[in-house]
Amino acid sequence: MRRNSSGSLGLERWGHALVLSFRHSPLGVGGDFLLGTVLEGAMQRSFGRDVVAAKLVRDGDLVRFLIAGRDGGNKAIGWLSDGVPWGEVLMRLAGGGAS
User: Fold this and answer.
1) How far is the C-alpha of 99 from the C-alpha of 92, rounded, in Å?
2) To 5 degrees, how large is the angle CA 70–CA 38–CA 25?
3) What pTM value is reported for the model?
4) 26 and 3 in contact (C-beta within 8 Å)?
């Protein structure tokens, strides 16, 4: 059986938040950290400033990363580690939820 080695990158906008999504990563779940690091580096190079790629959620074969400045990214990572759902994290960053 031949395994498909390609995936698809998507760009999503949630209010003012930029979310990059990747479907069918050939790296699988175990490669999410590496994928996030690559996306972070590419966005830093594109934007010419320091950004964070914070993994929001993995749902089956789809993984989403928030691309944010260092402060917003660190807030998001903290909230996610506290168990805040990723949609609520995006709302909080937009100023529409509890901090």
Assistant:
1) 6
2) 125
3) 0.86
4) yes
